[in-house]
Amino acid sequence: MLEADGLKVSKTFRDSADLVVYEGGCRELLEQIPPGTLQLIVTSPPYNIGKPYEKRMRLEQYLEQQREIISRCVKALDPRGSICWQVGNYVDQNAIVPLDIALYPIFQSFGLKLRNRIIWHFEHGLHCSKRFSGRHEVILWLTKSDRYTFNLDDVRVPQKYPTKKHFKGPKAGQYSCNPLGKNPGDVWIIPNVKHNHVEKTAHPCQFPVELVERLVLALTKPGDWVFDPFLGSGTTAIAALMHGRKAAGAEMVPEYVKIIHQRVQLAQHGRLRIRPMGRPIYDASKPSKSRVKPVQIGAARPTLFELDSLLLAGHAS
Length: 317
Hints:
The protein is an alpha/beta fold. The chain contains 7 helices and 14 strands.
């Protein structure tokens, strides 16, 4: 195990590590993890559409492969833990199969309970000519039991009408909304990572950090293990480490493993550029002159409420 700038990094699973990056398949890494260790498993698995890092197979084979991996994940999950499986569509002869619908019976067969089917909406993607262009994907949030971690106050967003008050009854004149902000709901509008995104790497399908941050903050506590069986460019690890959690994951492509370590090193030295959580969606009619500031592992980012205050003051970055 290596230690650099206070961060303990291991190539195999060790509970004393802060970050585990296993170069290989997730099955082998999951065999190293004791049952009940992981608080949050969040991933975006290959969609079986022929990307460079995957081998296309029949849908039935793909679902069976996913079943095997999911079964190992469930075994490693803490009784109060959560699984967040982010997927899109499998396309076969121009017909789509929503993978969340295809995968749900598998999760259900292991006794997991679906808490939300979160819609992740974004504005950019492939332009279709024979059907409406896809502009959303789905996150299935499932728990192992009815006793699970959910920190709603940590992910509240600013109220639309923060000064609204009750106009009659015993609470007349009092504010009618939660002063900490509102529940973000189950439709999340977060830009996807395309060529001009500040987080873009050589990986063709990477998470935006903001998407994973919300899950990490809502579903874990500091010091908990966050696991990604398909680590890709390391976004899950970045989001976890930024907020004082431990991160583990597997990645089979050597080029992507290098990217993971590069991004972690940049974050350690405060030089990793990330789109701030809660930043307003870009509006071409109102171009912004603000710049994205780098983040640093171990340094707290502004909360959504602090960010909202900055926006009101005209100093948002």
